[in-house]
Fold these 4 entries.
Entry 1:
Amino acid sequence: MSVAASTSPAARSIVPVALGDRAYDIHIGAGLIAGAGPLIQAVVPGRPLVVLTDSNVADRHLAPLMASLAASGAKVLEPIIVPAGEASKDMERLGEVMDALLARGIERKTVLVALGGGVVGDLGGFAAAIALRGLDFIQVPTTLLSQVDSSVGGKTGINSRHGKNLIGAFHQPRLVLADTVSLDTLPRREVLAGYAEVVKYGLIDNPGFFTWLEANGQGVVDGDPALRAEAIRVSCLAKAGIVAQDEKEGGLRELLNLGHTFGHALEAEAGYGGELLHGEAVSIGMVMAFDLSVRMGLCPAADAARARAHLAAVGLPVDARHLGGGTWTAETLAAHMAKDKKVKDGRVTFILARGIGQSFRCADVRLDDVRDVLAASLAGHAS
């Protein structure tokens, strides 16, 4: 997955996800929402479509998408709109979406189009996986995080009071349309949250990309169109390569969880009301993973410091001290980790690092070391 970034991408690019008879393309570029109709018709010609989106995205992007679908001659059912925010990824909202789908008279040839960020993509993908025992679906991600991560690879699901994404299914989309113009409407905080997932690909196994991000990451965050398109392209190439080799997370794909074991524990403790965004939790979690690697004698301290410095420089959080407080404890966060979906035989699998771009799976981690790293982050300094 070693991919060198360039600074002059084509206006649009296509990244294939090679999964045999379930292969699909990721289209990246400007204007893809307004031009979605012909692209979707080329993949699922003549089939009924129903769009799922959230209240924020609907105001900005639903009308041009619906117009393009109608102009292409597609039969488009009444769209389904859910409230914006992580709280919509729960069993109650899933039930409402299922009822709405069935009320529209869907058939097995109906295609669900998920227009929105990671919440809509995860919720819509899971609804498609279980409605009538499986509908095709298409991802139209509108956030940086969903364009570089959650829309690609077929992981779908909802949250439980026991933890994040514990209820779900692998269900690959038929097409992904990542319209870079949609990122211009995002609050800066949302862009930063997505950027954490971009950095992840450099830290996993592409040190050249991480070096490119050190030089160009601020431009990506600030909205340079060419830099954004290139960061998305390289990120999608990275994820597509891993998914093609390990679709259902039998080993290699677990590397994509760098920072997520820690991050999901932070999200569970914060709740899902917006106090902590997923990408913010991943940023803190990646720093914790590098700190744990240093504590275990696996990673040079200089590499951990470099990862922390870059994330902090663009404006991402790098420790847990701003998350409220004194009521948070290392023990509480460790308890959340014990419920992580990656637990095997009672042991938590961590993604650690031997350096920048040298991540690996590790199930042999002392709980005392984990608690020390958590405590240090809660105190606002490196372990």
Entry 2:
Amino acid sequence: MLAFIIRRLFQSLLVMVAVGFIAFSLFNFVGDPVNNMVGIDATIEERQRMAESLGLNDPFPVQFARFAANAVRGDFGQSFRLSVPVEDAIAERLPATLELVFVAALLSLAIGVPLGVYTGLHRNSPLSRLLLTVSLIGISLPTFLIGILLILVFSVWLNWLPSFGRGETVDIGWQSNLVSLDGLRSIILPALTLCLFQLTLVMRLVRAEMLEVLRTDYIKFARARGLTNRAVHFGHALKNTLVPVITITGLQIGNLIAFAIITETVFQWPGMGLLFLQAIQFVDIPVMAAYLCLVAFIFVLINLVVDLLYYTIDPRLRIDKRVHGQ
């Protein structure tokens, strides 16, 4: 187990170095931040002094080495647009994104797993076919269109929920939406928009796994022992569908964080995605590079956790390890 963790940590380190290099390389060719930081009347000498103060005149290897050395210490430099340390700008926006992703993931599991179980156990019922049809529509529609439709229905027509912003937040060590009624109302629409694709994915995955597991020999043996349908379906079949569900859910949480940009833009949700989009418009290289490194770190961490959960949940992995170790 220890050797597995060490090997994965080493692989994760290589991934982080590669992501940092690619991100920093690409962003150095997307534009000139000096043009956005000085006035149109600035002289060539003023532009050169600004570029020199930002270190933009140094050779690329020197710039990347400085960036990597500072990133190891958690220092990503100064935001060109906000004129504050990058880590402070991200720390201010990170809670909004994490809470949005948490609620979206919770909704996708709380709704997707029961619907997947139902459609797997009653695969020929009219309701199951209707749910599968709706799920196909949900996967096909783009995220921004779903968000606009939800705003149209629940904010414009029905006037039930706010259409933008976080609403009232409460300081619980960070600014949180989840402990105020107005904050909870504000997070519903963006969370539904963000979770819809993952919800349909979880539902279809659970359904497919349930159909596969219910045909296995040990389920037939459990029925032959006289176990009730409830015990067979939820004590045996559902438990064995958890491994792929954990994998997809874990990876999708990373995707939710990485691709919350569209949802945060539609709902003007002040999270990291909106910060990244604003950084692109301003050619704020430190913020863009730090954002991608953070997202890569989250993906790497989630993959490691998923692998450890595999080892914990699936006893076949431990048996194989003992067999090969003999």
Entry 3:
Amino acid sequence: MAGSAHGHTPAAWTGVIISFIGFCIAGVFMVAANQAGFWAGMGVVLLGGVVGLGMRAAGLGMPKESEAVAAARAAATAKLRA
């Protein structure tokens, strides 16, 4: 797992931070028994996902690797294990 960079991008960090803030907002308003505030917090959670996807589409996420890169990685891993 340490060898992969999964989730270590500005898009991932930003989306998760915004979603975490929304989760905290929803939690506070759930305890306060305020439905409007709870749903506003849930909206912020969804906004985090939208922002993360938008940043990924803008090139700030992890690029998808091609089949050639995947094959080269598998061959290198197999060579190291042999």
Entry 4:
Amino acid sequence: MTLQWTAVATFLYAEIGVLLALCLPFISAKRWQSVFRFRVWNALASFWNKAFLTMIIILIVLFLDAIREVRKYSGEQLNKNSKLQPNMFDHLHMKLFRSQRNLYISGFSLFLWLVMRRVIMLINQLATVTATGVALQTQVENANQVAKKYMEDCEDLRKVLDEGKTGKKIEEGNAVLKKEVGRLTQELRTTDEALKKSQAEVKAVRRQAEGLTQEYERLLQEHHVLQNLHQGDEGDKKSQ
């Protein structure tokens, strides 16, 4: 394996390791978001988009080069050289196997590079939505406590009115308290609706993350199956 394909294979293994770490269930999205906010990442943020696009271009070029090599040593080319010596024929088969291996390495590296960027974005979104939901839940609890307190005050005023201690000041205070209770009730409803919306967004993001994880596991299994098939084919060809 040449130096460039060794680097691509190392990059592929690194991508697999990072994605497996991001998919660990015992590390929360909030913890990952705190990791993404380290100063070193903030310093590299201005170069991230350029590095991302540059890596995509490099992987696409390597992928196209691997396709060219596969077509070069394909079955048609082997048929044209079928009259060659057996050792030369085996050499062409080895070239075809290496070009196919490079094709899969570059293709999966490009795919996992895009998947890793998407997973990081989803983790950040999930952490933000979760924090928003916790803040809204706290606001709802505070509003419930305030509303409960004002309702108790209204109940005390009603008892006073029932006992016959009426007066203009008491009626004015009761009216003010009713308005305040109405305002707090409206705020409570608004906060409750915002909380439900935030919880729905959290569920949607979690479903997307689970779907992406399942898709990644499926593709990884297909990758192992394809590698086993090619190794089996190479073994059959050598045995023949």
